[in-house]
Amino acid sequence: MSQTIGRTRLAYSRAWHHVSLSTPDTPPLGRLASQIAIILMGKHKPIWDPSTDCGDYVVATGCSDVYATGKKMQQKLYYKQTTRPGALKSLNMEGMMRKWGGGEVLKRAVSGMLPKNRLRKPRLERLKVFEGAAHPYKDNLIKFDGQRRRVQPEVKTEILKQKSL
Fold it and tell me: Which of 46, 48, 74, 95 is the most exposed place for a label (fewest CB within 10 A)?
């Protein structure tokens, strides 16, 4: 009997998820980052395995509206080191939002939620962040905020039109 039940090419296909941060019911940064990390790892799929990369793509729009609870905007620090003595630089979340935008803040939060192994970089590359609502992946999206988009191929709609005539 085969030991690879359900591990077909279709099971490993990658879906595209859309997360809009400009909606009023968007969770805070940490909770949102953990949900995105689960999708990037593929833990929501029944075929999940820690050693394989079976996650999906995530498109996050409206990253300029990302928010954090408490005083994290002023107190949370991001560090950068060039390995030279005295070259440790720090920047708070407000400064990071001004300098690099909310997308970089979201990417760093998601990066902290992913496991620190060889799959971290390719998983992060599947996270696409945009400051506004416009993005070039509209045709790829299948799921909008967890809801599946109903897509009918153009051929089916043409056949339905011809039958109605």
Answer: 46
Task: Give me 1's structure tokens.
Answer: 């009997």
Tens-place pLDDT, residues 54-96:
999 999 999 999 999 999 999 999 999 989 999 999 999 999 9
Provide the residue count of the chain: 165
- What long-range pairs does 27-31 form, CB within 8 A, spacing at least 24? 28/67, 28/68, 28/69, 29/66, 29/67, 29/68, 29/72, 29/105, 29/106, 29/109, 30/68, 30/109
Q: Which residue type occupies 96? A: M
Cβ atoms of 110 and 21 within 8 Å: the answer is: no
What global pTM score does this model have?
0.82
The strand pair at 89-92 and 16-20 is best described as: unpaired
Q: What is the pLDDT of residues 88-114, one digit of tens each?
A: 999 999 999 999 999 999 999 999 999
23: tokens are 């909606």
